[in-house]
């Protein structure tokens, strides 16, 4: 069984070879990804593969995202530490933990109660308390807590869910994979007054966003 130090070494390699080497420069983000023990967000049988360059299963037919994708999406949100963030698709809670270290507060919605429960347990173990988890259909957002400075969707949508755009602050960013099942474009939408600026950050592959404004 690998010890704590082995995991730290694997994490350092992950950050260097998969993330920094591919152009992510935000030092706060790189430091946080160096610190968060990604393996704890999956079952023990997968720990030795936890720092590899791909997604891994977390139960319920869902996956923990590839480390580089987590970095790319987080980087695109441009967090400084003051933001209120909404995440759709808590899953393992790994992305949630990264966001919690880089923003002021994170609200995260997950469809599957079992995954949300497990994520809550790991986040508490890591003493990450600036997070509120909710079980429900995140395609409708979390209107009671809106607006958000940044919103991240970690499942693939057929179209951008309208309620999420409406729950952005002025200048707020929404990062969401949009496209067909099994192949999407990663979009960043920025709210500017009555307008919404849209950028395409490249191709990606996510599990389905299932819900009223999803599949
Ligand atoms: N960020 C997570 C990704 C998990 S995969 C991680 O890295 O672990 C995407 C997650 O989105 C799954 O857990 C899935 O159950 C969830 N999901 C799908 N549709 C959803 C919806 N409408 N609302 C909330 N969560 C949803």
Automatic annotation (TrEMBL):
Assigned GO CC terms: cytoplasm
Name the active site residues: 65
Catalysed conversion reaction: [protein]-L-isoaspartate + S-adenosyl-L-methionine = [protein]-L-isoaspartate alpha-methyl ester + S-adenosyl-L-homocysteine
User: Which of the seven top EC classes does this enzyme belong to?
Assistant: transferase
Keyword list (alphabetical) reads: Cytoplasm, Methyltransferase, S-adenosyl-L-methionine, Transferase
Question: Where is the major localization of this protein?
Answer: cytoplasm
Molecular functions per Gene Ontology: protein-L-isoaspartate (D-aspartate) O-methyltransferase activity
The listed locations are:
Cytoplasm
Alphabetical GO biological process terms: methylation; protein repair
EC number(s) per entry: 2.1.1.77
Q: Which CDD domains does the annotation name? A: AdoMet_MTases
Physiological role: Catalyzes the methyl esterification of L-isoaspartyl residues in peptides and proteins that result from spontaneous decomposition of normal L-aspartyl and L-asparaginyl residues. It plays a role in the repair and/or degradation of damaged proteins.
Q: Which NCBIfam families match?
A: pimt (TIGR00080), PRK00312.1 (NF001453)
Similarity section: Belongs to the methyltransferase superfamily. L-isoaspartyl/D-aspartyl protein methyltransferase family.
Name the UniProt record assigns to this protein: Protein-L-isoaspartate O-methyltransferase
**Where does this protein come from, organism-wise?**
Desulfoferula mesophila
Q: Which lineage?
A: Bacteria, Pseudomonadati, Thermodesulfobacteriota, Desulfarculia, Desulfarculales
């Amino acid at each position: 069984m690998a010890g704590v130090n082995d995991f730290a070494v694997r994490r350092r390699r992950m950050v260097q070879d998969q993330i920094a080497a591919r152009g992510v420069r935000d030092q706060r983000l790189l430091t946080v990804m160096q610190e968060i023990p990604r393996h704890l967000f999956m079952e023990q049988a997968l720990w030795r593969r936890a720092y590899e360059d791909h997604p891994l299963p977390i139960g319920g037919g869902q996956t923990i995202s590839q480390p580089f994708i987590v970095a790319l999406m987080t980087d695109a949100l441009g967090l400084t530490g003051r933001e209120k963030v909404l995440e759709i698709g808590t899953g393992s809670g790994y992305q949630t933990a990264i966001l919690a270290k880089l923003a002021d507060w994170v609200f995260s919605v997950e469809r599957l109660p079992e995954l949300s429960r497990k994520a809550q347990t790991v986040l508490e173990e890591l003493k990450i308390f600036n997070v509120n988890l909710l079980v429900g259909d995140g395609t409708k957002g979390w209107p009671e807590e809106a607006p958000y400075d940044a919103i991240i969707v970690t499942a693939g949508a057929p179209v951008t869910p309208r309620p999420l755009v409406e729950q952005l602050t002025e200048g707020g960013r929404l990062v969401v994979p949009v496209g067909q099942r099994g192949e999407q474009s990663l979009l960043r939408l920025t709210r500017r007054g009555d307008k919404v600026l849209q950028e395409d950050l490249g191709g990606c592959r996510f599990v389905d966003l299932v819900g009223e404004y999803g599949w």
